[in-house]
Amino acid sequence: MTHDPHVWSTRMSEENNLDTTEAVEATELGASTEEPTETSTATDLTSEAETEPAAEGDALAAAAAALGDTEEEDAEASYKKRLRDYTRELKKQPGKWYIIQCYSGYENKVKTNLDMRAQTLEVEEFIYDVVVPIEQALEVKDGKRKLVKRKLLPGYVLVRMELNDKAWSVVRDTPGVTSFVGNEGNATPVKHRDVAKFLIPKEPTVDGEGGVANADGEMVIAMPEEDSKSAVKIDFKVGEAVTILTGALASVAATISEIDQVTGKIQALVSIFGRETPVELTVDQIEKIN
User: Fold this and answer.
1) 182-206, pLDDT tens digit by residue?
2) Phi then psi for 213, rounded to 5 degrees?
3) Mind listing the pLDDT tens digit for each residue in 134-179?
4) pTM
5) Which of 59, 148, 234, 249 is least surrounded by CB atoms within 10 angstroms?
6) CATH class of the domain at 94-231
7) Where are the domains of the chain?
8) Per DSSP, which regions of 142-237 are E strands?
9) 3-class DSSP state for residue 287?
């Protein structure tokens, strides 16, 4: 078969032009495809670098909050367990717990007098225990905080006893005692759980030390650590209703009756055994009722 040289040359020129065009298009396509990809990747990396610290900070904050909540829940669970265990221990003891009312400020004297009378009048077999519950709290004085001891139930003394005419008479006639607390003047035993809230020892320390009664028969219930913080601003006012946060009176409502801006003491009235009783508190022990 014979080929026309002119036709063959024309066809080869067209094919070369086509190859050149395809190569140019391929180059342009590659450039248009790769450049946006690199730019997009750089933008994504920059975006991630900007958002990563914020996300990490949020995660740390959430973890810290969760840890705080967990610690509070663990502390509450630990206290409830100790309270249950201590209540069971009280139930194993002979006698029942009663509350005797006395003049405020005479609690220790009443305890001493009652112990002596129980021995002298030979009723020790019926009167087992006489306790003045106290707590140790931080008090601001001269711009410094120090540990002070105060009555947890001012005007009251706890007595564990077998109630009969002889024992009742010894208690009732003790100097400083005004009456038993009960319905219509009758001595009414207190539930073991309620007594446990007032007498539960402080949580044992590393050396195993727990709450013990001192020479005055006072049972130390709380032992906060002393610190060197300065006086705290008292953002409360007389007549304001508050809720007690700590101690045996936790969750109990109170009304502020007096505020000492110098010492940081707050006097409040709470209802204890049907009687309005003054108690001493500090700003970190109460919160406002919304």
Assistant:
1) 876 678 899 998 888 888 876 654 4
2) -80, 140
3) 877 666 666 677 777 778 888 899 999 999 999 999 999 999 999 8
4) 0.56
5) 59
6) alpha beta
7) 1-34, 51-92, 94-231, 232-290
8) 144-151, 156-161, 177-180, 218-220
9) strand
